Amino acid sequence: MCSSDLETGWEGKKLQVNGVVINLTLMCPRCVMPTIGFDEFRKDPGIMRTLVQHCQHSLGIYAEVEQPGSIQVGAPVQLI
After folding, report:
1. Considering only CA atoms, which of 69, 66, 47 is closest in space to residue 3?
2. Angle at Cα 6 formed by Cα 72 and Cα 3, nearest 5°?
3. 39 to each of 42, 43, 44, 46, how far by Cα in Å?
4. Spatial CA neighbour of 61 closest among 17, 13, 20
5. What is the pLDDT of residues 30-80, one digit of tens each?
6. Are 3 and 54 in contact (CB under 8 A)?
7. How far are the Cα atoms of 11, 17, 19, 23 from residue 14, in angstroms, in the given order?
8. Rounded-to-integer distance, Cα 18 and Cα 79, Å
9. pTM, full prediction
10. Are 27 and 7 in contact (CB under 8 A)?
11. Would you place residue 16 in the very low, low, confident or very high pLDDT band (cuts 50, 70, 90)?
């Protein structure tokens, strides 16, 4: 299971945290950057293959703040 499986159902919805409202706008297509090695991590093209095969080439979701405010650790989050 890809972690983006959950997020694919979120596109077009909103997250509400206290008074903060966040529009979930578009699945995030991944570029090749996750495959490039740096520091102690080696180059791994298998990362992109996995994203393409299991995650529809996406990982994460773009969002826009509709109603700004403060969010505290542990605040309840509601998908609306």
Report:
1. 47
2. 90
3. 8, 10, 13, 18
4. 13
5. 776 666 777 787 777 777 777 777 766 677 788 999 999 999 999 999 999
6. no
7. 8, 10, 12, 4
8. 12
9. 0.65
10. yes
11. very high
